[in-house]
Amino acid sequence: MTEPEFLTTTRTAYDTVAHSYADVLRDNLAESPADRAVLGLFAELVRGPVVDIGCGPGRISGHLKRLGVDVSGLDLSPEMVAVSRRDHPDLRFEVGSMLDLDLPDASLGGALAWYSVIHVPWDLHPAVFAEFHRVLAPGGLLLMAFQVGDDVRRLEQGYGHDISLDAYRLNPDRVLAQLTEAGFEPHTRLERQPTGPEKTPQGYLIVRKPG
User: Fold this and answer.
1) What is the number of domains present in the chain?
2) Which of 25, 104, 187, 189 is the most exposed place for a label (fewest CB within 10 A)?
């Protein structure tokens, strides 16, 4: 079966920028107290194994590991997974797609989608959220982070490379409604104003699978 075009373009773009991306963002968390606070809350709340879905170079996985979380990572880009394994040899990283997670039902205590759903077209979000719900055990938590908005940006340059990639900004009300429809209960919602090079507010949602 032919894969959706957005998966091909996303994989190609992140394969291209993987090493530059890791270098540029390596210390980014040190400059974002809001990010650290949300990840710290998630780490305090979550019980059981967590998968960082769309883990990129593994920097958030590594941070959660330092907070005591049993975490592994998954990414669409083989180059990103290679960088993750290089930089975090004590963690497990695999290649995979959030549209079809190679994980048993109800096998996770938590899932993280840290700026990773932003390349999935809006009309496919319900399918992605249903897949997140499937792999979480009752009581499991999902943490999402994303740029807030209602538009799509075409990215032609990234981290010093020519790329071709769509980035979808997300409306928190719509996302929360879709997550509720997928069977989640809201837990925490946070929105902060842009800082530094950011152009939009940043949104964070923690939701729980009932049980």
Assistant:
1) 1
2) 104
